[in-house]
Amino acid sequence: MRILGVASASAALGLGAASAALACDISEFSAEAKCDGGKGVIVVTDKDASGTPAVVTVFLENNGADAKKVGQHNVKGSAAGTTVTFAEDWQPNAMYRVHVKAGGKLVDKDITPNLSTPATACKAESPSTPATPSKPASPAPSKPSTTAPAPAPSASESSSAPAGTASNAPSPAVGDSNLAETGASSSTGLIAGIAAALVVVGGGAVFFGLRRRGANSGR
């Protein structure tokens, strides 16, 4: 009986030690201020191997008092670590209080010391500059012609028609050529001569007629 009592006591002590080792503890929680895409975030990690559900609450501190409640998340820890992220665009050298409550009254404490943010704020990521499209090669400028231009014709050359070139003026009629040269046709002179001869002949006939008549009268 004594042996059984000792064995039972040893088993109870072992179970108690194992339970204590697996119990959730505030030391298994940690917090860190980081940057995510140019924005600030607060990341809390739970490494409670027992997987005890916990509630994590983050407060912004100002002169030792809560200035505002940043947010609250539920987390179930693991030996590898489970993280929860609070979107908070924190300022440099700011102070945050992180409170953890797990397993009823098993854990109800703040992570100590309070979280202090870095001295440098997060920088916005600069947009990538798009590649400048290559410009098409411009065509080479054409060289001016070295051939001298033909000289313009002079006024005398332009006014006179070149040899062997027919004139654009209409040719005169055959009968008009003599008129242009003498001022009258060739038959006009002949008719004038005949008329003059007839006048002379007529005058002579009249003269002889009157003379003969005078002679007859004298007898």
From TrEMBL:
Entry keywords, A to Z: Membrane, Signal, Transmembrane, Transmembrane helix
Superkingdom in the source lineage: Bacteria
Keyword Transport: no
Region annotated Disordered, chain positions: 117-184
Coiled-coil region: none
Residues making up the signal peptide according to the UniProt record: 1-23
Biased composition (Low complexity): 124-135, 143-167
Annotated transmembrane regions: 190-210
Keyword Transmembrane among UniProt keywords: yes
Protein's UniProt name: Alpha-ketoglutarate decarboxylase
Organism: Streptomyces naganishii JCM 4654
